[in-house]
Design goal:
The chain is an all-alpha fold and about 600 residues long. The chain has a domain of about 400 residues: Amino acid/polyamine transporter I (Up-down Bundle), CATH 1.20.1740. It is about 75% helix and about 0% strand. The protein is built from 25 helices and no strands. Helix 22 packs across helix 23. The radius of gyration is 24 Å and the shape is globular.
């Protein structure tokens, strides 16, 4: 691509500004572990909410969402259930307040709050550390692959003559951009990350709305209708996808088969079931959990996750839909000419050929901001598990705050290197994402559901549930693929992995003693969960008749159901706005107003004050 001088100047100015601001505020985040990883729990909830949303607005995920909307049409709004996106609703309604009351630094440290410090608790603690590090390395590889594919198409410089192998243009660009972003993320910790992410999200929002407007201006609804099969703009589906690309663009059918999504109803059902369990488990030990723990109070933790839902979906799907619509109108000939179309490169193709010069630099800065936000948040969350949960707890409990910050920076560099190594070995973004959310998280969810809601669940049960689940995640998808003789969607392996993990949880728990009553009573008084806590609740009430148990299950459950509908409306509304389908816009807007009023009355007005 040939960039105009103005475009290059905008990109360089953005990179310089983001890095310099991150370095400038880094001294505030270098005092101790609490300031390095949680910003001293001094940041306002709305800044943390924007920061969390910015971290989720990653470039690899945006490329994937564009691919899905192109291939599956508006039915693609259900595919993010695999992460699941609606975990933000569960966090918003009740789980963020439970997690924040624990007042810890990491998810592994939270284990002590729940299970104490005996052998079972220590094993549970180490299993969380292992999962967190595997998850972070997987997400770094995901970010690496996304930014490499994007930058090699969009940026004008040829770093190498190689088109294949480890040292191709994609990989060299990825290493360079990861290195630049690491400068402030590793040096300054949470405060540097949050401040730069607020800047980046501002750029992203303007960028997204601009792309949506360009698509509305350049592409008519009739052009879109002529390019897509019947049912493309309908969000509802049956057992099979039955999209009907045959005759329009036959090679799209190959992508659907490669994704393993022919039986769309089954896939979405598995995603939703897994998503409910994953959401009940609370946030995975990554930057999302870190933002919750960094808030100033349990009430602000819930408000922070509410902010994510409000600010993220409309601008993101304006961008996704705008890029997809422009591709449908102007890139079909180029895509059809490819022997094997790579729909993950639709995003850079659109910007290469169909955005005016001068505007491209601004849009590229916004998309690079998306990558930098997600990557910085991920790399900042990782080293806490090495330093706080291994070094400080097991190796040198008396070490100084200065040593902790120094070791955190070293750990960040090492983890980054491992993430890059795995990124070099990865071919498709989609394959990596499906393994992380379908297999890896499938092994994680059950142990992390039971820890909140069942008093008898103990540290040994947690450890064996995690170990058996992670072992299943590492082996079952490969076994299924070998048995069938072809690649399959990792989501199909989820039920098998779940059964293995449940067996580990139940056997590990029932074959060992229950946790000490004092640990359980302290957890129940502090966190105040609902669920199967009857024996512990009775003991707490016997000691303190003034204690008020949590009886909000029905209210929380109804808020979650309405909240998922509300979130889907926030997702679908910008899609239909860019498509200019006014009947859908009117219906969705009406549902959005009703659900917003319900949430205001049944959630916001009843939030605890701390």
């Amino acid at each position: 691509m040939v960039l105009h001088t103005v475009d290059i100047a905008i990109i360089v100015a953005y990179f310089a500004t983001a890095v310099l601001i991150g370095l400038w505020v880094s001294r505030r985040g270098s005092k101790d572990l609490d300031s390095y990883f949680l910003g001293g729990k001094s940041l306002p909830w709305y800044l943390l909410g924007i920061s969390d949303a910015s971290g989720m607005f990653d470039i690899a995920g945006t490329m994937l969402l564009v691919t899905w909307l192109f291939v599956y049409g508006v039915k693609s709004i259900w595919l993010p259930f695999m992460w699941p996106v609606f975990n933000q609703v569960f966090l918003m309604m009740f789980l963020s307040s439970w997690l924040r009351r624990s007042n810890v630094l990491t998810g592994a440290e939270w284990i002590e709050t729940r299970f104490g410090r005996d052998t079972g608790a220590n094993l549970a603690h180490l299993s969380v550390v292992f999962f967190a590090l595997v998850n972070v390395i997987g997400m770094l590889a995901y970010a690496f692959k996304g930014i490499g594919k994007f930058a090699s198409v969009m940026l004008p410089w040829k770093l190498t003559a190689a088109t294949e192998g480890l040292f191709n243009n994609d990989n060299l660009y990825a290493v360079l951009i990861l290195g630049l972003t690491s400068l402030y993320a590793i040096k300054g910790g949470m405060i540097s990350v949050v401040i730069t992410e607020v800047l980046q999200f501002t750029i992203l929002t303007v960028t997204s709305i601009t792309i949506g407007i360009v698509a509305i201006w350049k592409v008519s609804p009739e052009t879109i209708q002529a390019a897509v099969p019947a049912g493309w703009s309908n969000p509802f589906f049956g057992l099979r996808l039955d999209m009907g690309w045959t005759g329009l663009f036959d090679k799209v059918n190959d992508t659907i088969r490669a994704d393993g999504n022919e039986f769309f109803g089954i896939i979405i059902g598995l995603m939703f079931f897994k998503g409910i369990l994953a959401s009940l488990a609370g946030p995975a030990p990554n930057y999302d959990m870190q933002r919750v723990l960094a808030t100033r109070s349990p009430r602000e933790a819930c408000l922070m996750n509410g902010m994510v839902n409000v600010v993220l979906y409309f601008p993101r799907y304006m961008m996704v839909t705008g890029l997809t619509v422009i591709a449908l109108a102007f890139c079909m000939a180029d895509l059809k000419a490819m022997d094997k179309p790579d729909f993950e490169k639709v995003l850079p193709m659109v910007l290469t050929e169909h955005i005016p010069q001068g505007v491209v630099g601004f849009l590229l800065a916004g998309l690079l901001a998306a990558f930098m936000s997600n990557f910085a948040a991920t790399i900042n969350a990782a080293p806490a598990y090495v330093v706080n949960d291994i070094y400080k707890r097991f190796i040198n409990p008396g070490s100084s705050a200065k040593t902790h910050v120094f070791l955190s920076r070293i750990a960040s560099v090492v983890i980054l290197g491992i993430g890059i190594l795995f990124g070099l070995m990865t071919e498709r973004i989609t394959t990596l994402v499906m393994w992380i959310v379908g297999a890896l998280y499938g092994g994680y969810v059950m142990a992390n559901v039971l820890k909140w809601y069942w008093w008898r669940f103990n540290g040994y049960g947690y450890f064996w549930g995690m170990v058996s689940g992670l072992a299943g995640a590492m082996s079952v998808p490969w076994i299924v693929q070998q048995a069938l003789g072809r690649d399959v969607n990792a989501m199909y392996a989820f039920p098998i992995i779940l059964v293995i993990s449940v067996a580990g949880c139940i056997l590990g728990t029932l074959l060992t003693a229950a946790e000490d009553d004092e640990i359980l009573k302290r957890f129940y008084r502090t966190v105040r969960p609902w669920g199967f806590w009857g024996p512990i609740r009775d003991k707490v009430l016997g000691e303190d008749p003034s204690f008020r148990p949590n009886t909000r299950f029905r209210r929380d459950a109804s808020n979650v159901v309405v909240g998922i509908v509300w979130q889907l409306c926030l997702t679908a509304l910008p899609i239909y706005l860019v498509l200019r389908q006014w009947n859908w816009i009117g219906a969705i807007a009406a549902v959005l107003v009703v659900t917003t009023i319900f949430i205001k009355l049944n959630w916001y007005d009843k939030l605890d004050t701390d």
